[in-house]
Amino acid sequence: MELAPLYLKKSEERRLRAGHLWVYSNEVDTGRSPLTDFQPGQQVTLLASDGRAVGVGYVNPHSLICARLVSRDPDHRLDRSLMTHRINVALALRERLFPRPYYRLVHGEGDLLPGLIVDRFGDLLVVQLNTAGMEAVREALLAALQKVVGPSAILLRNDSALRALEGLPLETSQVGSVPEIAQLEENQVRFRIPLQGGQKTGWYFDHRRNRRRMQSYVSGMRVLDLFSYLGAWGLQAAAAGASRVTLVESSANALEWARKNAAEQGVTDRLETFKGDVFEALREFRTARRRFDVVIADPPAFIKRKKDRKNGLQAYQRLNRMAMQVLAKEGLLISASCSFHLAPQELNDLLLYQARHLDRSLQILERGHQGPDHPVHPAIPESDYIKCLFGRVLPS
């Protein structure tokens, strides 16, 4: 059975031929292929205005990104065979990079499987189907994962905000017997994490290499980990010899898990937890004249959409200024952002401005990025989102 055609306006195929995977609704020739004729998730043959095939994609007529290219060969649909091949290619990279099976196995467009996220915790997979097109091939995808990885269980965390934008229900389900707790190892440090109540897939593998960089700076240091979640930064600092680690997190449950992991690592005597708002905590530390040798500021995305930009920039400025105010002399600020809408140079300039505002000098020692299990699609800037600067804050 042939796929229905989705015609593009004149010259609108150029971006796809140059490497992009997305089609926006205003690029579709709705006279020849009305979007109302398609069901969310339906696969189509993408055609240039002259009728030449660009490839196969899937459609969501209700989304601004109304189609995503999945194959440049018009004979290859998004089916079990294609997904098995793409997952095998993704797995080969991860197995080359990591000695232990704890990583992001599939990173959406970066692995040419748009709308799909798969994180691996040993023989357990946590999956997010974030688009209608991926939801439509759910059973074929699960079969492909079983064939390539053979997991003992799969947890589908289909409760992300991206699904709401696609008009999909928010839900969680599982294949096999999913344990309440997953285990992982990162930079030779072991963690146990809650699966059902955790954020997103339960862990943020994207900063793995930045956390490894951090370890060389913290031996004998007093470390403050802001927005600590389960303590990925802070507990790895403790494992690397930090003399004292303070975690600040608004979730009592996350801090409880951090304390459990600290106990298993034998670093409880060097751990302090502070439940509450990060900005309030920084204000209290400043008032009490508490100082830290290393401050880690890895907040959630303050700029999720363009319209959030003004308020988000103010939040990044305020956070980094207050973080500098509790740094000891010649202290290290590790400042990160996962907001695509904050460019790397903007984070650099923002830190410089805040340092000068406080009459201090700034040295940039290292620049971090997302790890290679979060590959960037070179034609899709949105896939390049992690920034991490290691800055030494000095007296003027």
- Which architecture of the largest domain per CATH? 3-Layer(aba) Sandwich
Helices and strands, in order, run as EHEEEEHEEEHHEHEEEHEHEHEHEHEHEE
Low-confidence stretches: none
How many structural domains in the coordinates? 3
Distance between the termini: 71 Å
CATH homologous superfamily assignment of the largest domain: Vaccinia Virus protein VP39
Radius of gyration: 23 Å
The CATH topology annotation of the largest domain reads as: Rossmann fold
Q: How many strand segments?
A: 19
Mean pLDDT: 96
Number of distinct helices = 11
Task: Describe this structure as you would to a colleague.
With 396 residues, the chain is α/β, with parallel strands linked by helices. The protein folds into 3 domains: 4-71, Roll (Archaeosine Trna-guanine Transglycosylase, Chain: A, domain 4), CATH 2.30.130.10; 80-179, Transcription Regulator spoIIAA (2-Layer Sandwich), CATH 3.30.750.80; 200-395, Vaccinia Virus protein VP39 (Rossmann fold, 3-Layer(aba) Sandwich). It has 11 helices and 19 strands. It has helices at residues 14-17, 80-97, 132-136, 138-148, 161-165, 208-215, 232-239, 252-265, 278-287, 309-325, 344-357; strands spanning 4-7, 22-24, 43-47, 53-59, 65-71, 102-107, 116-121, 124-129, 153-158, 171-175, 181-186, 189-194, 222-226, 244-249, 271-275, 292-297, 327-337, 360-368, 387-395. The protein has a 7-stranded mixed beta sheet, sandwiched between helices. A 5-stranded mixed beta sheet has the order 1-3-4-5-2, with no helix packed on it. It has a 5-stranded mixed beta sheet with strand order 6-7-8-9-10. Strand 16, helix 10 and strand 17 (327-337) form a beta-alpha-beta unit. The longest helix has 18 residues, at 80-97. It is globular.
